[in-house]
Structures are given as C-alpha cells and as structure tokens.
Amino acid sequence: MLEPVINFFSRIFYYIGRGIGFIIGIILLPFVWAGRWYGQRGIILKAVLGLAVLVWLGLYGYFFYNTQTWKNFNPDYIVAYNFKNLTVPVGEPVPSPTQAVDTGAAKTCARSAIVQVTADLTDFNVNQNGWISSMILYKLGFFGVDWDNTPFFDNKASFQRGINSAVRRTAIELVDTLGRVRGTSQIDADLQKARGNLQFTEDAWYFGLNPFGPKTPTPSYYRSAVKDLRTFNTKLESCNAIFDARADNLIQFIDRIANDIGATSAILKDRSENNNYGWFDTRADDRFWFAYGQLYAYYGLMNAAQVDFKQVLDEKHLTPLWDGMDGQLRSALNITPWIIANGSEGGWLFPNHLTTMGFYILRVRSNLIDIKQVLQQ
Questions:
Q1: What is the DSSP code string of 229-253?
Q2: Which residues does the chain have with pLDDT short of 50?
Q3: Residue 172 lies in a domain
Q4: Which pLDDT score is estimated for 183?
Q5: I need a surface site. Which of 36, 74, 171, 182 has the fewest CB within 10 A?
Q6: Distance in angstroms (rounded) separating the CA atoms of residues 102 and 119
Q7: 280 Cβ contact list (under 8 Å, min separation 6)
Q8: CA–CA distance from 291 to each of 126, 267, 372 (Å)?
Q9: Where are the beta strands (DSSP E) in 88-177?
Q10: Residue 204 phi/psi, 5° resolution?
Q11: Rounded (10°) CA dihedral 265, 348, 342, 72
Q12: Half-sphere exposure of 327 (CA within 13 A, CB side)
C-alpha cells in the first residue's frame, strides 16, 4: 500500500539529485576544460600560468581576510580614553608639581579630545585595518560587477567610508572654526594639510586610468592626515596652537553634524521605501553599514566634544541632554545583524534594519537640534 508513495518520493529525490548534479556540472565545466587545456601545454607556459594562479589566489586570500577581519572594532572604544577624568579646558595650562616648584619649567597645555579621536579613527581605518575601497580586487569588482551591488565583501568598505565621512566633516570644522580664532588668526598649517589629505578620493590605487599613470594610494594620504592631526595636538600641548572652544563654534559643529546624519537618514528612507526586497536587496547592507560607521565615529567625536566644550556645556546646564544623546548613539551601535534585511515596514516575515537605523539617527539628530537651541538662548 505504501509502495506507490515511496516510489513517488524516490522519483522526486532522484530528479532533484539529477538537477543538482547537472547544475554542478555546468559550474565545473569551465574548470574541467581549463584543466585539460593546461595539461596539454608546455612546461614553461605551465609554470607561468601556475604562478599567475598562485598570485591570483593569494590576492583573493588577502582580500577575503581584510574584508572579514575587523581589527579592534569595539562599540565601547571611548572607554579607553577615560574622558571623565579630563578636567582642564582644551588649550589651557595643565598644573603640575614640577611647575609649582620650578617656575622655569616648560608649560604644558591640555590637548584636544576631538583632534585625538579624529586621528585615532583614521588610524583605525588605514593602519589597524586594511582600507578596502582602494584595494585592486575591490576596484575590479566581482567579475566586473561592483562589489557594492553584491551581498558580500562590501560591508567593511561601507563601514570605513561612514567613519571617513564623519572624520572629513570634523576636519573641515577644525580648520574653519575650531583650530583658530575666527577673523583674527591664520589657519593652522597642520590642520589644513590634514583636511586636504582626508578629502582625497577614497578609491585610489597605485595605478589609475583617469588620469592614466601611477598614483599615490588613498591610505598614504590618510596616514599623512593622522600625522598632521597628531602634530597639531602636540603643538597644542606645548601651548603653541589654538583651539577656540566658544559656544558659537560648538553650535556650528553640531549643526554640521545634524545636517550630515540627516542626509544619511534620507538615503536610508529612500532605500527602505523603494527597494524593500527583504534579504534580497543587495544594496541595503551598504546603506546600513555606512550609517553605522558614521554613528560609530560620531559617538567618539561627541564624547570628545563634551570634553573640549565642557565649560560651555556646564554654563548652559547641558550635560544631561548631552548624555542622553550619547545614550542614543551607543544604543544604535548595538544593531549588528549578521544579514541586513530591507523588508516592508508593515511586513511580518522580513525585518527592516534600515528603518531601525534611521530611527536612531533621527533620535540623535533631534537631540542635536535640542542642544543647539539651548546654546542659542
């Protein structure tokens, strides 16, 4: 009685197995053909081609390792700075026992936490990790398809670009307002060089087609920016530089950041509404990890700003509101799904990680606007 049923399912599994075998055969066919062709070549050609294959495999191994390994990634990275114990205003003399005894001792001033975090975030991107966007295999794509249009090997690149977006914005503000007394002092040369280096294109390799010829790769420029930022902080520590921690400068800094993450929120909203294909939206992960990288960087930069502008925040009694904003930033960094899904907002099967990230971005932006309004009173 059960024999017809067993035979039916046996045939189904037989044809499924035949179908899988047929597909695997098609996939392996080019490799089988290449193996036969290779076996018929001469020893010199075999050696050259074998070496080329080894180099190709080595490049892909290096590329895979760098895209999948996130060295020193830590959402709580600001803890190591111990910002709560920094009480001397930025650029102001730091009292020391030596100075109390010897009036001829060299004077030391407080460094800028914002400059330190900006340098450290860039160092994290290009020294502690490989800069993915300018790697040759990332530029070549997946058989000609841009890696950003695939669901793999592009998350770290988007995350790094998100950090770099926040760092670039901060470098601009350091040059234009924070690192000088507006209208009465010249632009600091080291901050100017850092800004220029950080504005360099994100995808330069050792050679390019437009313009044609050899180039300096992107990480070299960003490493130079790290040195320039640290040089500025060294000058500030020796009381030979300016950091203008005025309320109007903080207002402008906050306003720029609010606009920056507001634009990212709009990008997330557009992708969520017009491409809600669940787990099959291959660009959702790029949008998500870029936004995550931005918030990862601004979490550290906002904690640093709380140190550098402590006097302003104390005068306006803004510490509780600022701490609330920090809490929103840190909560956003808890969202680290293995696969990014862009499902319908009203759907029940697929989550929508873009909408969730956009929610936190808007909460942070709302806090920034509230802080700005209090500062303007």
A1: HHHHHHHHHTT-S-----HHHHHHH
A2: 100-101
A3: yes
A4: 56
A5: 36
A6: 33
A7: none
A8: 19, 9, 22
A9: none
A10: -75, 135
A11: 80
A12: 7
List the one residue out of 198, 200, 67, 197 whose CA is nearest residue 138: 67
Which residue in 347, 108, 335, 317 sits closest to 233, CA to CA?
108
Q: Is residue 1 a part of any domain in this protein?
A: no
Q: Judge whether 153 and 244 are in contact, CB under 8 Å.
A: no
The rounded distance, in Å, linking the Cα atoms of 308 and 301 is: 10
Domain boundaries, position 182: 81-376
Q: What is the largest CA-CA distance in the chain?
A: 105
Place of tokens 């930025």: 90
Amino acid at 176: D
**Which pTM does this prediction carry?**
0.86
Residues 6 or more apart in contact with residue 300 via CB below 8 angstroms: 77, 78, 81, 117, 120, 121
Alpha carbons 328 and 326: distance in angstroms, whole number: 5
DSSP conformational letter for 111:
P
Q: What are the Cα distances from residue 294, in Å, to 166, 192, 281?
A: 6, 22, 21
Q: Cα(59)–Cα(137) distance, rounded to whole angstroms?
A: 8
Q: What are phi and psi of 208, to 5 degrees?
A: -140, 165
pLDDT at 229: 97
Burial zone of 18 (CB within 10 Å; 0-12 exposed, 13-18 middle, 19+ buried): exposed
Helix or strand or coil: residue 135?
coil
Residue 341, both tokens? 């899904």
**The two structure tokens encoding residue 298:** 């601004």
Domain tally, the chain: 1
145 falls within a domain = yes
The pLDDT of residue 100 is: 47
The pLDDT, as a whole number, for residue 367 is 94
CA 235 vs CA 28, 103, 133, 311: distances in Å: 62, 21, 33, 22
Q: What token pair was written down for 97? A: 């026992």
Average pLDDT, the chain: 86
Question: CA–CA separation, 330 vs 334, rounded Å?
Answer: 7
**Cα 225 from Cα 242, distance rounded (Å):** 18
- What six digits make up the tokens of 34? 């290449």
